[in-house]
Amino acid sequence: MPHPDGPRQLLLRADTYLGGFKLPADLAARLREPDLEAARALAEHLGPSWSVRYQDERHRTTKLVCWGCPRLHWAADPHDTPAPPSHIVVEGEYKWYPLRAEGFDDFAPDDPAAALGLSEALVDDLYTWARAVDAAMETWTKDRDDAALTAAHDRLGDAGRELTERVAREVGPGRTVTYGGVW
User: Fold this and answer.
1) For residues 132 and 161, what is the distance between their CA atoms, to the nearest angstrom?
2) Which of 140, 136, 138 is nearest to 155 (CA)?
3) Residues 44, 85, 131, CA angle at the centre, nearest 5°?
4) Residue 169 reports pLDDT greater than 80
């Protein structure tokens, strides 16, 4: 029995009902003809919370498909790297990066250690949002206009919630993403 904190396992040839588990339609279609590329796409989509095994009939071996690199491995953690975050918080705070996770504190959306694999557009939008949080606070420290700060806080809060939804979509089902607010 796998350890509860370890990766969940998925067998590609399972025929049973998997509850509410759903894959994007294009990935589900690819898995109808399971090959190594389909297994890699599945591992990348599911992320570090799942382990995907690939059975190589020609060599009569079963190896783990790495979600972070294009290779097959015998061991579950072949790179001996710290585990990427499984729970991410999107949070706007003055002079901090926009993402938080246990073991990472605040971190950049394109930090390779976090291995989020976010699109360039989303990374840019997260950086822009973080700069807007900084700008709102800097304006308030000069002007002390509480009404303007409240309006900025509301606007940035709405943007932060939208960014949280986008991050959740892009990191896939293997990670949870929540919104932590602004300041």
Assistant:
1) 15
2) 136
3) 100
4) yes
Q: Is the pTM of this model over 0.70?
A: no
> Whole-angstrom Cα distance, residue 42 to residue 38?
6
Q: Is the pLDDT of residue 108 over 50?
A: yes
Specify the 3-state DSSP secondary structure of 117. coil
Do the beta carbons of residue 7 and residue 48 sit within 8 Å? yes
Find out whether 90 and 97 touch, Cβ atoms under 8 Å: no
The Cα 156–Cα 137 span in angstroms is: 11
**Alpha-helix residue ranges (DSSP H) falling in 82-173:** 120-143, 146-171
Tokens 């990374």 — which residue? 123
Sign of CA dihedral 35, 113, 102, 159: negative
Q: Kindly tell me if the per-residue pLDDT of 117 is higher than 80.
A: yes
In DSSP notation, 63-130 reads EEEPSSSS-EESSS-TT--PPPPSEEEEEE-TTS-SEEETTTEEE-TT-TTT-----HHHHHHHHHHH
CA–CA distance, 99 with 115 (Å, rounded to integer): 13
Q: Alpha carbon 176 to chain centroid distance? A: 8
**Cβ(130)–Cβ(136) below 8 Å:** no
